[in-house]
Amino acid sequence: MRTNGRGGKIREILTRRELLNLLVRRDLQARYRDSFLGFLWTVIRPIIQFLMYFIVLGQFLRAAEGIDQFAIYLFSGLTLFTFFSDMVFGSTGSIIGNAGLVKKIYLPREIFPLASIGAAGFMFTVQLVVLLVAAVIFQALPEPVMMLWFFPSMFLVLVYGIGIGLLLAALNVYLRDIQYLTEVVMMLAMWASPIVYSWQMVVDAVARLSLPSWVLEIYAANPLTLAVLGFHKAFWGAGTPADYPPELGLRMLIAGVVGVVLLVIAQKVFTRLQGNFAQEL
Amino acid sequence: MEDSIPQPRPDIVRLDGVTKHFIVRKDNSLKDRIVHLGQLGRAHRADFVAVDDVTLTIEAGTTVGLLGANGSGKSTLLKLIGGIVSPTSGTVHTRGRMAALLELGAGFHPDLSGRENVYLNASILGLTRSQIDTQFDAIVAFSGIGDFIDTAVKFYSSGMYVRLAFAVAVHTDPDILLVDEVLAVGDEAFQRKCMERITQFREEGRTIILVSHSAQQVAELCDRGIVLSDGRVVYDGDTNEAIGALRDVLDGRRVGEAAPTDTMHPIQVKRIEILDGDGEATRAIDEGDPVVIRVHVDSLRRIERWEVGFSVDTPLGHMVLASNTEALNVRLAPIAGPTHVDLRIDEVHFGSGQYYINANAAGVSESSSHGLMQGAMLTVRTDNTTFGTVAASVSVTEAVDG
After folding, report:
1. Mean pLDDT computed over every residue of chain B
2. Considering only alpha carbons, which residue of chain A is nearest residue B84?
3. What pTM does this model have?
4. Which of A243-257, B140-154, B233-247 has the highest mean pLDDT?
5. How confident is the model at residue B301 (pLDDT cuts 50, 70, 90)?
6. For B257-266, how does the pLDDT look when each residue is reduced to its tens digit (9 = 90+)?
7. Among the ranges A63-72, A83-92, B180-189, which has the highest mean pLDDT value?
8. How far is the alpha carbon of A260 from chain B, nearest alpha carbon, in Å?
């Protein structure tokens, strides 16, 4: 006998993975249906964004001068951040976007944020291929063993992306302000991570302004910052130890443990809130 | 339902003290919430109980009708069973695959083709890909969509859309089918198709839980009726009795006990009573029993010659039986005040179901008439296994040729 709305969620979602797969495909197919360039848009948008930062920040504002292989540095950070922001934005709107289904049919509701995350994952994969190809062409890749940093970075981004995504998806049903708030916070998050500037620049700025050292510690505690730094280690071979905070691995481990706790809490909150989704929509 | 299956069937749905509160907020933005935080917020919230402490079990293979006025909690109860909303307190247990026909085509994406939507929708309803592959042709055939299956559904007519959605829903092979007034949509041919399919589901021994406003539909399809009023179960049992109970709830009174009104017409039917063979007031009789329809009439002044008539209708308004004193060649004594006339039917050979009794009175010497529609309701019980409004025993003799 099944008790509605209790336990066994992960197993339930696993049994519905075919549906998850279809929902991801629906998201992607519907997004570019009837557009002339279709799936090319998944690449065009980030490349334009990349060019914009590369030219304006890198060349006009000379950020590129302090960073070797600035193009790869920028694109790797941007790729990871875009994945995170796609996950969070996609899942925040996912329950409301699927209101018709949520109100009428019983499904494990986690499936909707997860489907958005799946769609974000697809676009991320495409960009990752572009990044790899570019890194190979520019001969920017570090030695192969360094590329293992890819995995802890991905773990951090996924754990935080899913956790925050689930939480915001549920809250957004009750408070539509969440989606606007998310836009503002994500914009801040982008500039709060070493994507268009380097860790070295942050260290210099802290020293120049003679700020206490805990400011730097707080900056380095941001899981997104850690994930971006890990990604740099994996794809940007020009980095020196001065480009990364000390004990990056340990910091990532701590952030990972905190992230898992957050994910568990987010799932609990989601389960609790989802009982009233149908009438709140 | 009686003794066709000897051993008790397993419970497929079990609700235990299920209560559902809704909190309706008048504010829905962060600013409003913060402004109205705490005590002030109470004024911006209205709490209402949609389903109040409902405990019931549904056995596998039964067809249950949920009846009730608008806002009585029928749909909420169905959503609770379907797991679409979770109860505030109490528990809901269900077993088996459930298909909810709460809305046809929920989850259809307008930009995707019919084929893609069939896969998506069937998957939402719980089929695996290989199951959909085997059912796909049957779904398309049932829907009658034909070559349009590869067209985006946004170009479909609303009829095609609904047909395709229904085709998917009925091919999902559910153990429990939840039906919420979806049968009210579509043209007549489509509705008939829906009904046939639901009847077929029923014959296959699946459990169906149906919300309907149509007493006739419930009477035709269901083994058991549950009547809700303000979120509470007020009746649970035999379908025909349930329809009677629903009538009481809707009228907010007991049938035949209308508040006495002043006599306005020169001659007026005040109320109708139903008596059994022993002269006791009754609401339900067995087929073949006598019944007396007592028509209470009042007049403002003395009328020398007058007539009384009655008719018996089905809930759909088809006349089953009617007569009047003129046709019966009975001359009534002059009327000058409150009186009553008894019309006796010696043997009631109606099919099982609900019947409304109407009566009218007319002055002959003084042109005036008044009728009381649906003044009483009569439930007829029968052991016959025939259908329709006439009860008769039917037997079969097979030809023994050669």
Report:
1. 81
2. A106
3. 0.73
4. A243-257
5. confident
6. 444 556 677 8
7. A83-92
8. 27
A101, B111: Cβ pair inside 8 Å? no
Q: Is the pLDDT of residue A252 over 50?
A: yes
Using CB atoms, which residue from A2, A100, A175 is nearest to B107? A100
Q: pLDDT-based confidence at B253, cuts 50/70/90? A: very low
Closest alpha carbon within chain A to B119:
A22
Answer whether residue A6 shows pLDDT above 60: no
**Predicted pLDDT at A256:** 96
Choose among B30, B106, B120: nearest Cβ to A104.
B106
Q: What is the DSSP string of chain A?
A: -EETT-S-HHHHHHHTHHHHHHHHHHHHHHHHTT-SSGGGHHHHHHHHHHHHHIIIIIIIS-GGGGSTTHHHHHHHHHHHHHHHHHHHHHHHTHHHHTHHHHHHS---TTHHHHHHHHHHHHHHHHHHHHHHHHHHHTT----GGGGGGHHHHHHHHHHHHHHHHHHHHHHHHH-THHHHHHHHHHHHHHHTSTTSS-HHHHHHHHHHTT--HHHHHHHHH-HHHHHHHHHHHHH-TT--GGGS-TTHHHHHHHHHHHHHHHHHHHHHHHHHHHTTHHHH-
Interface membership of A42 toward B (CB under 8 Å): no
List pLDDT tens digits, range B376-393. 888 888 887 777 888 888
Answer for the pair A195, A63: CB distance below 8 angstroms, yes or no. Answer: no
ipTM of the complex: 0.74
Residue B206: the pLDDT is 87
Pick the residue from chain B with its C-alpha nearest to A272: B86
Expressed in percent and rounded to 5, the helix, strand and coil fractions of chain A are 80, 0, 20
Cα A225–A229–A235 angle (5° rounding)?
140
State whether A4 and B125 contact (CB < 8 Å).
no
A276: chain B residues, CB-CB within 8 Å: 85-86
Q: Does A279 touch chain B (CB under 8 A)?
A: yes
Bridge-based pairing of strands B207-211 and B176-180 is parallel
- Test the A interface: residue of B98, B123, B211 with most A CBs within 10 Å: B123
Q: Does B30 touch chain A (CB under 8 A)?
A: yes
Q: What average pLDDT does range B252-261 have in this prediction? A: 48
Are B82 and A278 an interchain contact pair (Cβ–Cβ within 8 Å)? no
Q: Do A175 and B29 touch (CB under 8 A)?
A: yes
Minimal-distance CA residue of chain A relative to B100: A105
Nearest CA in chain A to B75: A104
